[in-house]
Amino acid sequence: MIEICDNKSCTGCMACVNVCTHNAISMQPDDEGFLRPEISQDLCRDCGLCSKICPVNLKVLKAKPLSVYSGWSKDDSIRMASSSGGAFTEIARPILERGGVVFGCALDSDLKAVHTYVESMEDLTKLRGSKYVQSYIGDSYRQAKKFLVEGREVLFSGTPCQIAGLKAYLRKDYNNLWTVDLICHGVPSPLMYEEYKSYIESKYNDKIKDIKFRSKKVSWSYYGMSITFRNNSRSYYGNYFSDPYIRGFLRDYFLRPSCHQCQYTTEKRVSDFTIADWWKYKQLSKKDKDCYHKGVSLILVNSEKAQNAIGGLGLDLVKKNIESAHATNECLHTCTRPSDKRCAFWLDYKKNRSGFESVIKYMTPQHTNYKQDILKRIPNTDRTLYMVGMFDRIINLPIKFVNILSGKYSLEKIVSKFKML
């Protein structure tokens, strides 16, 4: 079998699939469910183009941010429907208003993560919000090139390795191309995602209708997994402390191996814009008093084109520096390390026939870890909540009640706040 690049370094970006004019390359799952390229000897013409344009084999051009911001959409409905502060929607809006096309990750009819494109603000909702599973690029790079050649503006969003794959495939710069990447924790296994869906459907005896990976039902920072079902009126909600898939993702049991040696974990970026969560955001004024509940975006502006555009977007922005960005998001400077139990996790999964249930023990929270896990993500003013033995009782209380407990309010203010609950 011919290898296009080092197998452990392959990110699954699918640049090779898109560039092969003989359709000799297909993506096949490995034993952890990650898609990897396979070459058909009958169709291959030995041109070597797949290896030449592979981002693993290239020196990928990166640029330091020209400016750094925290911020959120001025439209509260967009902000609440987004994973962070709604930066992606506000970056995409002017592209669509000018008749452009926006590419990103959506869930298809089978709730699988796939890259697709939209041409209206109404359809942009499909791309909004995080999807914690590696998306299938398909022929998105080819589609994007077609629109670019036609002269239409294209915004392509994805993980840094997917943006690098797009640029390697295009092999030239386009003035009408805009790119947005993420400060990425790593991409989870599609196999484990499918196992999780089957587990939830079996547990609730119903087919899943929709999944939101970052529901703000309780709070922005709790990684709320929200699921609705086709036939029943009930729904499912689980946060970092109770949902096994979210815990497994953040505890690094089933990330793609290349993510643990990612070349894009750096402040030097491959896109015009980089977006992420601005963890540990500190309130600066009354207008951002609800930031802990509603979410805050981290925005890196990495090109002159993006620098000229940022001021005209529908965002409330606060100028920051790269040092503060490093402090709020570790994956801007450090690769996610594999869990020391990763090998045991996959061995247990492969030797048992009970699917997700055979490894769910790895995702069961330990009470002694509650404090350590949550303190990394919340502001200092709220940490007193978790320094007392009340965590289990308050974790699902309305966020206003949480703010009351953690704020420095007088008795009169506390009484007035309770009247508004």
Describe the structure in your own words.
This protein starts with 14 loop residues before the first helix and ends with a helix. An eight-stranded mixed β-sheet has the order 5-4-6-7-11-12-3-13, sandwiched between helices. It is built from 17 helices and 13 strands. Mean pLDDT is 87; it is low at 377-400 and 406-421. It has 421 residues and is an alpha+beta fold. β1 and β2 form a beta hairpin. The chain has helices at residues 15-19, 49-53, 76-81, 87-97, 121-124, 140-149, 160-170, 190-204, 244-250, 291-294, 304-310, 322-328, 342-351, 370-375, 391-394, 399-406, 411-420, and strands at 25-29, 35-39, 67-73, 101-107, 113-118, 154-158, 177-182, 208-215, 224-229, 235-238, 273-277, 297-301, 315-320.
Query: What percentage of amino acids are in beta strands?
Result: 15-25%
Q: Tell me the radius of gyration.
A: 22 Å
Give the strand order, joined by hyphens, for the main sheet.
Answer: 5-4-6-7-11-12-3-13
Tell me the distance between the termini: 64 Å
The shape, in one word, is globular
